[in-house]
């Protein structure tokens, strides 16, 4: 301490005063473009979280191989949302404190997006998400961009396919009572009513049920000739599917996207044979989807599903929008994003509307002996 | 009428699962006076052991089964040494918290080691089920009901007619007296944990083909089993069985005739009603503490 | 030597200084919260920690003070949060009205759950609270028209007075500070002492005049209330609530928080809450392996329970205590006065044809006797003669099968223990029942506080009387020590002091000489004589013949549940039936 001269003190002080400005400068000049990802690493959706990270990672590698964004390499910073809403809020607010992060890829779960929405509005940076609750893009939050078709479309497509293609009128709907299931059921019911069909049985169940016998018997009693479903967790779907077949209900089944996801097919096995599912992602639906599937399979050794395809598209869309804007300024990126028309992603063709909905149609696929086959794409005008 | 039979079968089936887990609960409760909040993990761990042996290593079912139960015996012993034994002289609260900690530790360690993906475990028998009239009987559920009956009979015989069983009973009734009689109380408690872990594990292995194997499989079942033990009367083996079966039947019929989403609520509603309005119906006259 | 008033002043001054330091600390914290601009992440964490702490302090009251379990704190927290959320968003009510409504609802639920089930206690209470928690979660999810179902309630408003995150956080810190202060002070109030007494020894609490049921329900309702308050604050802070934030798992988290920090103090609640919110955040770097950090968290919970039984704060306090000397007061104390109620009649206790049967066993069969005012009456008999059963019937722990008991002219046969105490019955126990976590003084203060005690109930008078009572039994200079540090004989004296402090009309002593050595027995005999000299009526139950014959003026002898003799010591002790009962029929034949 003895050789601590006045001069060194002054220069230290000067450095201290200047440091924040210097650091801020350094961060603007940072070597990479950073994108934050909120993803379930623990909790019931941890499996899906792995897929979501893989999808984003594949896009990341592709973007970086093509020279990155604005000439810089891109980096993803992930935070665990623990599959809970408070977890998502904390994870997002943690990412939001990092000024280097220019945009976010968040959750496929609608309730989590609801929970994060106030913080997203506050930080005001473009945020891609996969939750399909239709209200999310009507919150008046300009920073939310959806990379999957919302549930009004899944309901419309299920109704259209079942009533017009299959010609069936006695509908039974089974749905989870969580946000996803309830909203999906409502959208489907509305679409059916629009086609002049009133469902004969609507059965809700609480997530993580161990037994679906009462549900199946109720469907049976109602004399349904077609089943549609909104399941959140694959183990529920697996138990239901088996009991449905065991109790002798063999009516055609058109389900929400979870019916064709990899884990559900593994768990339910033959019980899901010949079922239809609407899928925002279907491997055979386009060359882009096929290309993604090949890369994904090489990396993960399993078939891809919508858990990974939307994060893959989300990353590419962000890269495109920022490059198009020529800078990371949020308003410019937002304008660029909204101007994207006809971009062919793994999920389908993106045409962003003013609300921030990128996709407006669904694929219908069929499970043939455990293999997913593309059946039909139904698109609605944006 | 067929629907009633179908629901009854299903209710008894799922109720037997609750009863099996409740049996393990009651044994530990009687021996130590604590509620083990990590009871559900006994089932989960056993199911994962089964997956490791029979699916991953592709060993024959019976060998895997025996190894898994053996593994559960070791697990039960470790559980006692790590979670209960050091706290045996404290009140029930720290022990409850310690078992909660164990539950978090074990389920998340499993997640770390095995990943979050649910696993499939095949049925013990090749044919999944058959119809009697229009009532479908799932063989796996039949098996569970059968095992429950056998175990209850075994337990009755074991406690009433074997020396070890009688020693265990003496330990659970009055530890001080038992140790005066020369019964090694610590060993008896160890035996209880080992046996309870094996029963919980057996329930897990049996139910795995139906509910799949995941780190969350034990949680809900354990909570229902806990409710079953209360409805049946805490600390009573026959009560746990009756409570479990009653719970399974009540919630299945409740779901069918009242509301599916509130299914899990029926169990708890019945329980609260019982406790509030007829507590004496469950555990009889309470004798005042000797002053 | 200082006077009682000086002692009281000194301790009041100490308290005042503590309060001033506390206010200063809070002022600093509020200033920091109100003026520092935290980023969103830190604000969220602090907001969570502060609002959770309020709820966790509820558990400090119910679990730490009263020893009752509550596994539904997240449900109460959720009720408060939903009241604010739904009220401000759907019904456009003011934040304050919603918060008030929420507290009313929560208090109602807490009191209802408490009154209907708390008598069950222990594991049953655990189960009922779990059930309440599960049902409430299901209702939140499924009653969509009202609760918005699983979507939850978003865009909840903060009160206009505290519209920025900073000012709102500062407001929450103030609320936490006030709650913390109240919870900190609670143990040394009458209610708080009653809760601790119930926790330490329910039976003794009842016979010292505490309404156990009401005390427990009050503790439970306070716990629920603080849960609701925390929830209401939380809703304003996060502006979004959904059912999964208030699940059973969260109740477990609340419980772990309070145990981790230490149940005995609100500081423990804050420490536990802070740590359990921060630890998972600190461990985020372990996220590359799913499950690893929660596994470490689970392990930490077990280790803390194993190695820090009183929680982190309890651990710290113990270390501090060993550094600090204990306070000791000595003072001139007034002589203990025993005020007697207006004499109704010569008979203080009249027992008429009393019977208590356990199934076929007639433990007490048709016993009658009278205890005269101002006398020392002894009830004796060999082991198993029904003495203790009689005593338990007299003090209300058992309901008699038949017969009647009159105390001071009042039929008390169907009174609960604490009601008998209020009517002037005091007692001690054969196996000492003190409140083990308290000092000798606090034990005796509870005695002074018995309902119906005709003395001044101002704090200074309470303490003065309690010290005088301890002085009377010869332990005045050790009044501020924990009862566990006393010898067995001295603990018995504290128990007697506790009973005396309540000015009983009749003092029941259950085998007071049991377990005492011969010197202690001599001291006890002298003490009993001094008590008798003050004109107090005593009913003593013992089989120590020397003690009984020295102090008693009248003896009633029981055998096999029946009265076999009744009269003055000399005639009773020479009664042939008594000799047979005590020495066996052989002795009778030999003489």
Q: Helical content of chain C, roughly?
A: 55-70%
Number of beta strands of chain C: 14
Structural class of chain C: alpha/beta
Structural class of chain B: mainly alpha
Helix share bin of chain B: over 70%
In whole angstroms, the N-to-C terminal distance of chain B is 57 Å
How is the topology of this model organized?
The complex is a heterotrimer of chains A (382), B (291) and C (591).
Chain A: H1 6-28, E1 32-39, H2 46-65, E2 73-80, H3 85-96, E3 101-105, H4 110-123, E4 127-129, E5 144-146, H5 151-165, E6 171-176, H6 179-194, E7 201-205, H7 213-222, E8 226-230, H8 234-246, E9 253-255, H9 262-268, E10 276-279, H10 287-300, H11 306-325, H12 330-338, E11 341-344, E12 349-351, E13 361-368, E14 371-379
Parallel strand pairs in A: 1-2, 1-3, 3-4, 4-5, 6-7, 6-8, 8-9, 9-10
Antiparallel strand pairs in A: 10-13, 11-12, 13-14
Chain B: H1 2-32, H2 39-56, H3 61-84, H4 92-114, E1 129-132, E2 135-138, H5 139-161, H6 163-173, H7 175-180, H8 185-211, H9 217-232, H10 237-257, H11 263-277, H12 279-283
Antiparallel strand pairs in B: 1-2
Helix pairs in contact in B: 1-5, 1-8, 1-9, 1-10, 2-3, 2-4, 2-8, 2-9, 3-8, 5-6, 5-8, 6-8, 9-10, 9-11, 10-11
Chain C: E1 2-3, H1 4-35, H2 40-65, H3 73-90, H4 95-117, H5 122-142, H6 144-147, E2 153-154, H7 165-185, H8 190-200, H9 202-207, H10 212-238, E3 240-241, H11 248-261, H12 266-282, H13 292-307, H14 311-323, E4 331-332, E5 347-358, E6 361-372, E7 376-380, H15 387-394, E8 402-407, E9 410-411, H16 417-422, E10 425-427, H17 440-448, H18 459-472, H19 488-501, E11 506-510, H20 518-533, E12 537-541, H21 545-551, E13 554-559, E14 562-567, H22 569-573, H23 576-590
Parallel strand pairs in C: 1-4, 7-12, 7-13, 10-11, 11-12
Antiparallel strand pairs in C: 2-3, 5-6, 5-8, 8-9, 13-14
Helix pairs in contact in C: 1-7, 2-7, 2-10, 2-11, 2-12, 3-4, 3-5, 3-10, 4-10, 7-10, 8-10, 11-12, 11-14, 12-14, 17-18, 17-19, 18-19
């Amino acid at each position: 301490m003895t050789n601590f001269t006045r001069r060194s003190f002054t220069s230290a002080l000067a450095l201290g005063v200047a440091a924040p400005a210097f650091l801020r400068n350094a961060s603007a000049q940072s070597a990479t473009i950073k994108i934050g990802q909120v993803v379930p690493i623990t909790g019931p959706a941890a499996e899906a979280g792995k897929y979501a990270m893989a999808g984003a990672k594949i896009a990341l590698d592709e973007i970086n191989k093509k020279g990155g964004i604005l000439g810089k390499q891109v980096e993803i910073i992930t935070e665990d949302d623990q599959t809970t809403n408070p977890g998502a809020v904390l994870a997002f607010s943690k990412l939001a404190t990092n000024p280097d992060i220019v945009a976010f890829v968040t959750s496929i779960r609608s309730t989590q997006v609801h929970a994060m929405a106030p913080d997203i509005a506050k930080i005001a940076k473009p945020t891609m998400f996969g939750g399909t609750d239709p209200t999310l893009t009507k919150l008046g939050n300009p920073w939310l961009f959806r990379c999957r078709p919302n549930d009004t479309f899944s309901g419309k497509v299920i109704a259209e396919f079942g009533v017009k293609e299959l010609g069936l009128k006695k509908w039974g709907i089974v749905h989870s009572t969580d946000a996803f299931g309830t909203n999906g059921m409502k959208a489907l019911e509305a679409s059916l009513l629009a086609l002049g069909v009133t469902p004969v049985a609507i059965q809700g169940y609480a997530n993580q049920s161990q037994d679906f016998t009462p549900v199946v018997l109720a469907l049976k009693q109602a004399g349904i000739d077609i089943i549609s479903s909104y399941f959140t967790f694959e183990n529920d779907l697996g138990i239901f599917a088996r009991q449905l077949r065991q109790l002798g209900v063999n009516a055609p089944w058109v389900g929400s996207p979870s019916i064709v996801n990899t884990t559900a097919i593994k768990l339910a096995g033959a019980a899901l044979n010949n079922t239809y599912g609407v899928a925002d992602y279907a491997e055979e639906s386009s060359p882009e989807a096929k290309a993604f599937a090949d890369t994904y399979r090489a990396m993960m050794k399993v078939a891809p599903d919508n858990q990974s395809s939307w994060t893959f598209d989300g990353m590419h869309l962000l890269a495109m929008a920022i490059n198009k804007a020529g800078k990371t300024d949020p308003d410019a990126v937002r304008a660029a994003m909204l101007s994207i028309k006809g971009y062919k992603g793994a999920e389908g063709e993106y045409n962003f509307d003013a609300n921030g909905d990128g996709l407006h149609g669904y694929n219908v696929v069929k499970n043939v002996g455990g293999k997913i086959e593309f059946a039909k794409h139904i698109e609605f005008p944006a | 009428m067929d629907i009633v039979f179908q629901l009854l079968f299903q209710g008894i089936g799922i109720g037997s699962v609750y009863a099996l887990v409740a049996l393990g609960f009651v044994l530990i409760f009687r021996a130590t006076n604590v509620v083990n909040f990590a009871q559900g993990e006994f089932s989960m761990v056993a199911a994962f052991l089964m997956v490791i042996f029979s699916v991953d290593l592709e060993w024959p079912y019976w060998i895997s089964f025996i190894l898994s139960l053996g593994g559960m015996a070791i697990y039960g012993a470790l559980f006692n040494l790590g979670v209960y034994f050091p706290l045996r002289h404290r009140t029930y609260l720290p022990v409850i918290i310690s078992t909660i900690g164990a539950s978090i530790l074990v389920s998340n360690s499993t997640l770390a080691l095995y990943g979050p993906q649910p696993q499939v475990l095949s049925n013990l028998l090749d044919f999944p089920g058959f119809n009697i009239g229009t009532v479908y009987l799932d063989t796996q559920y039949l098996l569970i009901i059968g095992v429950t009956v056998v175990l209850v009979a075994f337990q009755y015989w074991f406690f009433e007619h074997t020396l070890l069983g009688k020693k265990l009973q003496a330990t659970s009734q009055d530890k001080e007296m038992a140790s005066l009689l020369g019964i090694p109380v610590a060993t008896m408690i160890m035996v209880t944990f080992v046996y309870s872990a094996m029963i919980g594990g057996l329930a897990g292995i049996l139910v795995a083909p139906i509910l799949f194997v995941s780190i969350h499989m034990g949680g809900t079942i354990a909570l229902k089993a806990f409710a079953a033990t209360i409805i049946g009367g805490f600390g009573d083996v026959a009560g746990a069985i009756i409570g479990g079966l009653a719970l399974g039947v009540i919630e299945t019929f409740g779901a069918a005739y009242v509301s599916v989403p509130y299914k899990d609520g029926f169990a708890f509603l019945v329980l609260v009603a019982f406790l509030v309005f007829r507590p004496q119906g469950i555990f009889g006259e309470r004798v005042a503490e000797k002053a | 030597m200082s006077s009682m008033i000086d002692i009281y002043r000194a301790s009041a001054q100490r308290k005042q200084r503590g309060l001033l330091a506390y206010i200063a600390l809070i002022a600093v914290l509020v200033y920091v919260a109100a003026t520092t601009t935290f980023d969103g992440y830190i604000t969220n964490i602090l907001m969570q920690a502060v609002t959770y702490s309020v709820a966790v302090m509820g558990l400090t009251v119910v679990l730490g003070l009263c020893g009752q379990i509550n596994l539904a704190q997240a449900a109460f927290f959720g009720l408060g949060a939903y009241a604010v959320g739904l009220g401000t968003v759907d019904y456009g009510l003011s934040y304050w009205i919603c918060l008030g409504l929420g507290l009313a609802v929560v208090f109602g639920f807490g009191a209802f759950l408490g009154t209907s089930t708390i008598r069950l206690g222990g594991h049953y209470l655990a189960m009922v609270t779990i059930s309440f928690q599960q049902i409430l979660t299901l209702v939140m999810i499924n009653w969509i028209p009202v609760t918005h179902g699983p979507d939850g309630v978003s865009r909840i408003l903060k009160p206009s007075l505290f519209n920025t995150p900073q000012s709102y956080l500062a407001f929450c810190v103030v609320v936490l500070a006030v709650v913390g202060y109240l919870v900190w002070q609670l143990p040394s109030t009458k209610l708080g002492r009653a809760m601790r007494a119930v926790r330490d020894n329910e039976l003794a609490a009842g016979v010292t005049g505490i309404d156990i049921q009401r005390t427990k329900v009050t503790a439970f309702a306070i716990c629920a209330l603080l849960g609701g308050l925390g929830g209401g604050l939380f809703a304003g802070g996060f502006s979004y609530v959904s059912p999964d934030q208030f699940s059973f798992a969260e109740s477990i988290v609340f419980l772990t928080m309070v145990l981790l920090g230490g149940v005995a103090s609100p500081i423990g609640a804050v420490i536990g809450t802070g740590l359990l919110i921060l630890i998972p955040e600190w461990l985020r770097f372990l996220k590359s392996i799913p499950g690893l950090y929660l596994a470490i968290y689970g392990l930490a919970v077990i280790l803390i329970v194993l190695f820090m039984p009183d929680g982190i704060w309890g651990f710290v306090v113990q270390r501090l205590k060993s550094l600090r000397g204990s306070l000791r007061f000595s003072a001139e104390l007034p002589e203990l006065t025993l005020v007697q109620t207006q004499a109704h009649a010569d008979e203080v206790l009249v027992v008429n044809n009393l019977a208590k049967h356990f199934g076929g066993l007639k433990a007490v069969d048709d016993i009658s006797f009278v205890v005269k005012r101002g006398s020392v009456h002894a009830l004796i008999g060999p082991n198993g003669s029904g003495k203790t059963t009689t005593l338990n019937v007299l003090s209300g722990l058992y309901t008699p099968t038949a017969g009647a008991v009159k105390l001071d002219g009042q039929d008390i046969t169907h009174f609960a223990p604490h009601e008998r105490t209020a009517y002037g019955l005091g007692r001690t126990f054969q196996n000492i029942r003190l409140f083990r976590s308290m000092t000798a003084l606090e034990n005796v203060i509870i005695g002074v506080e018995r309902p119906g005690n005709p003395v001044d109930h101002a704090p200074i008078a309470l303490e003065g009387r309690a010290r005088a009572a301890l002085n009377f039994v010869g332990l005045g200079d050790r009044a501020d020590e924990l009862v566990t540090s006393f010898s067995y004989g001295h603990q018995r004296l504290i128990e007697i002091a506790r009973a005396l402090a309540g000015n009983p009309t009749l003092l029941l002593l259950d085998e007071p000489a049991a377990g005492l050595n011969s010197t202690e027995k001599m001291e006890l005999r002298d003490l009993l004589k001094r008590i008798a000299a003050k004109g107090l009526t005593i009913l003593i139950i013992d089989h120590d013949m020397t003690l009984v014959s020295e102090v008693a003026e009248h003896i009633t002898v029981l055998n096999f549940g029946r009265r076999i003799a009744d009269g003055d010591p000399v005639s009773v002790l020479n009664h042939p039936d008594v000799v047979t009962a005590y020495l066996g029929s052989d002795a009778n034949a030999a003489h």
